[in-house]
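2024-03-11 09:14:02 INFO receiving multi-entity request
2024-03-11 09:14:02 INFO entity count = two
2024-03-11 09:14:03 INFO echoing inputs for audit
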Amino acid sequence: MPELKLTFERDGKTVHKETSGFTGKDCESVTEFIEKALKGQDMTRKRKDTYYIGNSNKQRKKTLNSDIRQ
Amino acid sequence: MSHFLDMKVPLTNPEAIVNGLVRKGVPLQDIEVHKQPTRLIGYNGQDRMANIIVRKNSLNNCSNATGMKSGAYSDLGFAEQADGTYKVLVDDINFNPTWVEELSMYHNVESAKIALDNKKIKYVESEEEGLPVIKATIPNRQQKKIAPRRTISFS
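2024-03-11 09:21:47 INFO inference complete, emitting structure
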C-alpha cells in the first residue's frame, strides 16, 4: 500500500517527506497536496532508486520503438 | 516509485497555530483569535497588532507550559503578514526561544493533519527519536483494476 511519512524537525521549520510503495509517477503527484498545504519552501527532492525502475523500462521501450522506426 | 523531500515550512495556518499552542500547554480559552489585527501589549507598554494573542496573565498562569522562569513581561502574538505568513511577536526576555521553535514544529504537525483530514486520508501520529512523525496510507489513484478472471469451459 502506498505510504507517506512526514517527520517534523524540532527547529520548527524543516519537514521531511518520504513516500514508498507508489506506482508510476504517483508518488510525487498524489502527495503534492501536503507540500501545498504546508506551503513548503526551499524544497530538495531526492528520488529513491525504485523511482527509476518503471521509467527506465518505458525509456527502454521508447528507445526500442525509435530503433525500429529507423 | 518513491522519493524523499525536505522542505522549510513557514507559519501560515491560524487553526494549526491555535492547536500548536494547546499542545504546548496553553488553555484553548486563553487564546484570542481575531480576523482584524488587535492590540497586544509588548514590553514596557509598547503596543503591537496581532491576529492571535495570548495575554500576559494567561502566560503567567501556564508558565510551566511556556518554560518561563519568572513572570511574562508581554503578551504573545501572531500577526498575519501580506504574504499570508504569521510573524511571532514576543517582546520578552524571559521567553524561551526553543519554545517558539517547538510551537512552530507543532504548527507544522497540525497543518499536515488538517490537510490529511481534508483529503479524508487515514494517518497515525507517533514519535521517532523524539520527533513527531505522521504515517499515512495513500490511496493510489492510478492503481490498475485487475479484470476478473474468465473461466473457459471446454465441452
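2024-03-11 09:21:48 INFO post-check: The first helix of chain B runs from residue 14 to 23.
2024-03-11 09:21:48 INFO post-check: Chain B has a mean pLDDT of 86.
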